[in-house]
Specification:
The complex is a heterodimer of chains A (278) and B (298). With 278 residues, chain A is mainly alpha-helical. In chain A, 77% of the residues lie in helices and 0% in strands. In chain B, α4 crosses α7. With 298 residues, chain B is mostly helical. In chain B, 75% of the residues lie in helices and 0% in strands. The chains are: A mainly alpha (278), B mainly alpha (298). Chains A and B meet through α1, α4, α5, α6 and α7 of A and α1, α3, α4, α5 and α6 of B.
Chain lengths: 278, 298
C-alpha cells in the first residue's frame, strides 16, 4: 500500500509540474517571441525557418526613436496620468460616500456608475467625437483625458468602494470623537489605511488609459497621438516593418508588465470589479 | 451646534458624490442624449454643415433591413459564445489542476497575469505576426508536423476562429485566476462532510464545488461576455473586419459605417442598439457583483 501511495503522490506532483509548465509555455511564448523578434535584424525577423539564436541588436528601437517616438510617449504619459489623477480625486470622494452611507438613491447611483464602466466605447465615441469637433478640441490631450475619464472614473469608484468598505467604522468614529471632521477622517484615516487599495486603483486606471485604442483612433491624429495609435499606424505602410512593430509592441507592454509584477495581489481584484479578493 | 452638524451630515453623502455626478452627466449622459439626437437624423460626416434633417426612426428601420447588421450580430454572437465558453472550460480545468500548494505559485500567477495586462492592440499585432502566411511561427510549426501552410487571417473561414484563439490566449488566465481565487475562499466544512461520507471526486465536484463556485463563475463569465461583445482593437489591427465582412463584428461594423462610409446618424443608431444589448447582459452582472460586494463588505 505504502509504495503505491508514494508512486501516486509522485505521479500527481509530476502531472502538476507538467501542467504548470505547459500553461506557462503557452501563455508566455507569444510574448517571448514578440520581444525576441524586436531584437533581431529586419531579415532575421521575417526568416522562415525562424532564427532562434542570434546576437541581439537595438537597431529597431533606434529606428522607431528616430521616427518620432517622443511625442506619442509624452502624450500617452500625460493622458494616462491626468485621467488617473482625475479619476482617483473625484472617485475617492464618491467611493467613500457609497461605502459608508446608505441614503436615498445610493443603490441607484452605484448601479448607474458601474453600468457606465460597462457601456461599449463605440456608443460614446461618435457623439464625443462630434462634440469635441464642435468645441475645436479634436487632436488635443484634453479631449483624450475627458474621454478616458468616462471609463476610469467609474472603475476607480468601484474598486475604491470595496477597499473603503473593509475599514472598520470604529476607526473613523474614534477620530471624529477626537475632533476630526468627516472629511478629516477620510483624508487622515481612511485614505492612509487604504493606501495599497488606492495605489491599485490608480495603477489599473493608468494601464487602461495607457492601453486604450478606440478613442485615440477617433479623437487624435497627429498632435495628441498616443502609443497604441502608433502601434496600429506602422502597419499602414506598404511593407510592414515587423522588427519595428514588435519593438513598438514591446515598449507599450513594458510598463504594464512592471506594474503587474509589483501589484500582483491587487490586480485581479481590480479587474474583476472587486468581486474577487486576490 | 448639534443640529447643524446633523443637518450637514444628512447632505454630506450627496456632497461627496456631486463632483462625480456632475462629471458623469457631462461626459456620459450628455453624449448619450447628443447620440440619441444623432440617431434620429440623417448625418453625413463630411456634410455636417449642410444640415442634419430629422428622419424619425428611419435609421433604426434601415438597420433592421440591412443584412450587414445581421451579419455583424451573427459574428458577434459566435465570437462571444466561443470565447467565453472555451475560456471558461480551459480556465476551470487549469484552476482545478493548480488548486494546490506548490513552489513558485506566486511567480506563476504573475506570469499568467501578463497577457491580460497587455494592450489589446499589441495582442492583435503579436498574433498577426505569428499568423503571417510567409514567415509566421505557426506556419513553421505546421510544417514541422507535415501540414501545408494555412491562410489564417486572410481566409473567410479561418479569420474569425483565429481571432477567437487570440482572445482565448489573452483571457483564459483571467478565468483561471478568478476561479482559483473562488476555490481558495470556499468553506471547508462541506468538503470534510463529503469525505466522511465517502463521496467520490466527481460527485464532490458536481454537487459541492460547482454550486459554491457558481456566483463567482457567473461574474467572470458575464464580465468576459461584455468585453468580448465590444471587441474592437484586436480586430482592427488583425483584419479590419475582413476578409470581406468575415470578421466585421459589431464595434467594427459601426466604426466602418461612421468613419469609412460617413453615415454617422446611422452608426449612432446602431451604437445605441448595441448599448442596449450590453445593458441586457450587464444587468444580472451588476446585481451579482453588488451582492458579492455586500456579502463580503459586512
Amino acid at each position: 500500500m505504502a509504495p503505491n501511495a508514494k508512486i501516486g503522490r509522485a505521479f500527481k506532483k509530476g502531472a502538476l509540474t507538467l501542467c504548470v509548465t505547459v500553461a506557462l509555455v503557452v501563455f508566455l511564448f507569444p510574448i517571448f517571441w514578440m520581444v525576441s523578434t524586436s531584437l533581431k535584424t529586419a531579415d532575421q525577423a521575417i526568416s522562415n525557418p525562424p532564427v532562434w539564436i542570434f546576437s541581439p541588436t537595438f537597431k529597431n528601437y533606434e529606428d522607431i526613436w528616430a521616427k518620432g517616438l517622443l511625442l506619442p510617449l509624452y502624450n500617452s504619459l500625460v493622458i494616462a496620468a491626468s485621467s488617473t489623477i482625475l479619476a482617483i480625486a473625484l472617485g475617492s470622494l464618491s467611493a467613500y460616500s457609497l461605502a459608508r452611507f446608505k441614503f436615498y438613491g445610493s443603490k441607484f447611483t452605484a448601479y448607474w456608475i458601474i453600468s457606465t464602466r460597462m457601456a461599449p466605447a463605440i456608443a460614446f465615441v461618435l457623439p464625443i467625437y462630434l462634440m469635441m469637433r464642435n468645441l475645436g478640441l479634436l487632436d488635443t490631450q484634453v479631449s483624450m483625458i475627458i474621454a478616458h475619464t468616462t471609463f476610469n472614473l467609474p472603475l476607480a469608484i468601484w474598486i475604491l468602494r470595496g477597499y473603503f468598505a473593509e475599514i472598520p467604522v470604529d476607526m473613523e468614529e474614534a477620530a471624529m470623537m477626537d475632533g476630526c471632521s468627516r472629511m478629516g477622517a477620510l483624508f487622515r484615516i481612511v485614505l492612509p489605511v487604504c493606501v495599497s487599495g488606492v495605489v491599485a486603483a490608480a495603477v489599473i486606471c493608468f494601464v487602461f488609459s495607457w492601453n486604450e485604442f478606440m478613442y485615440a483612433l477617433v479623437l487624435t491624429g497627429v498632435d495628441a497621438k498616443t502609443l497604441p495609435l502608433l502601434v496600429a499606424g506602422v502597419q499602414t505602410q506598404r511593407r510592414i516593418m515587423w522588427g519595428e512593430m514588435t519593438a513598438m509592441g514591446t515598449l507599450v507592454i513594458v510598463p504594464a508588465f512592471i506594474i503587474t509584477a509589483l501589484l500582483r495581489k491587487h490586480l485581479l481584484r481590480g479587474l474583476a470589479f472587486g468581486a474577487v479578493k486576490g | 451646534m448639534r443640529v447643524s452638524h446633523r443637518k450637514r451630515s444628512k447632505y454630506f453623502p450627496y456632497l461627496l458624490l456631486s463632483p462625480t455626478i456632475l462629471a458623469l452627466l457631462l461626459i456620459t449622459i450628455f453624449p448619450l442624449i447628443y447620440g440619441l439626437n444623432l440617431s434620429v437624423r440623417h448625418v453625413i460626416l463630411y456634410q455636417l454643415e449642410e444640415g442634419q434633417p430629422f428622419i424619425g426612426l428611419d435609421n433604426f428601420i434601415s438597420m433592421l433591413n440591412d443584412p450587414m447588421f445581421f451579419n455583424a450580430l451573427n459574428l458577434t454572437s459566435v465570437l462571444v459564445v466561443a470565447t467565453v465558453s472555451l475560456e471558461l472550460l480551459i480556465g476551470l480545468a487549469l484552476a482545478l489542476l493548480l488548486n494546490k500548494e506548490f513552489r513558485g505559485a506566486g511567480v506563476v500567477t504573475t506570469a499568467l497575469l501578463m497577457p491580460m495586462m497587455m494592450a489589446p492592440i499589441v495582442v492583435g499585432l503579436m498574433w498577426k505576426f505569428m499568423y503571417n502566411y510567409d514567415f509566421g511561427i505557426f506556419q513553421y510549426l505546421l510544417d514541422l508536423i507535415g501540414i501545408p501552410k494555412m491562410l489564417f487571417l486572410g481566409s473567410g473561414s479561418l479569420a474569425l476562429p483565429s481571432i477567437i484563439v487570440a482572445d482565448i490566449w489573452q483571457w483564459t488566465p483571467f478565468m483561471m485566476l478568478v476561479i482559483l481565487a473562488g476555490l481558495r475562499s470556499l468553506p471547508r466544512a462541506p468538503f470534510e462532510a463529503a469525505m466522511i461520507d465517502g463521496a467520490s471526486g466527481p460527485r464532490v465536484f458536481a454537487d459541492i464545488t460547482l454550486p459554491l463556485l457558481k456566483p463567482i463563475i457567473l461574474i467572470a463569465v458575464l464580465l468576459r461576455a461584455i468585453d468580448s461583445f465590444k471587441m474592437f482593437d484586436q480586430i482592427f489591427i488583425m483584419t479590419r473586419g475582413g476578409p470581406g465582412i468575415a470578421t466585421e463584428v459589431f464595434s467594427m461594423h459601426i466604426y466602418l459605417r461612421a468613419f469609412a462610409y460617413y453615415y454617422v446618424g446611422y452608426a449612432t443608431a446602431m451604437a445605441l442598439t448595441m448599448l442596449y444589448a450590453v445593458s441586457v447582459i450587464a444587468a444580472p452582472l451588476i446585481k451579482n457583483i453588488e451582492s458579492s460586494f455586500e456579502s463580503k463588505g459586512t
